Amino acid sequence: MRAFFAVDLPDALADPIAETQADLGDAEGLNITDPTQAHVTLKFLGEVDAESDSDGDHPAVDDVIAAGERAVETAETDGGPVDPFECELAGLGVFPDMDYVSVVWAGIGDGTRELTALHEALEAESTALGVDPADHAFTPHVTLARMSDARGKALVRRVVRERDPEFGRFGVDEVRLMESTLTPDGPEYETVATFALG
User: Fold this and answer.
1) pLDDT tens-digit map of 97-135
2) Residue 187: cis peptide before it, omega within 30 degrees of 0
3) Which of 47, 63, 146, 184 has its CA 20 to 30 A from that of 32?
4) pLDDT per residue over 16-35, tens digit each?
5) What is the C-alpha radius of gyration for the chain, rounded to an integer number of angstroms?
6) 9 — alpha (psi -120 to 50), left (phi > 0) or beta?
7) What range defines the domain where residue 85 resides?
8) Domain harbouring 97, CATH code
9) pTM of the prediction?
10) How many CB atoms lie within 10 A of CB 153?
11) Considering its fold, how many domains does the chain have in total?
12) 164/66 Cα distance (integer angstroms)
């Protein structure tokens, strides 16, 4: 199964996210994500073996769960554990840059320090299992849309430059291990395990 560690957003933020996505809706070649499934990915794992006794090329799910537990327990900010905290979802950005737009995202203000600490702990624990290390710096974000081609790039650039939305704040008290199933209508997510903070 395809899996990743993430922090979920509350349902209350789905509407403000959808409002900003509507501004992007006329951009050709842009695929909008489901705002009700909004989340901050902390570490993408790729393939994980669903069987705990598997001898395959990927880590077993039980080992990944144990790694998630260790990471949440050992993650630190300012020398202390990462306890439940509050995040701010605000602003827009793109990956990799405005010249070549692949992903449109909403950014994180307050809470970046704690999310980064969780990411670093999950990165260390998962790479110890053989998961590929991240190939780019961690930027906590919520994906709003993905571009399949450049036809709508001008509209996307204009919205990102001109809008500075404040979506709202949300509390974070757990990290989830999620399974991602690709479907013709987009990915579907299911929680495999949760790890409480504090």
Assistant:
1) 999 999 999 999 999 999 999 999 999 999 999 999 998
2) no
3) 47
4) 999 999 999 999 999 999 99
5) 17
6) beta
7) 2-196
8) 3.90.1140.10
9) 0.94
10) 19
11) 1
12) 39
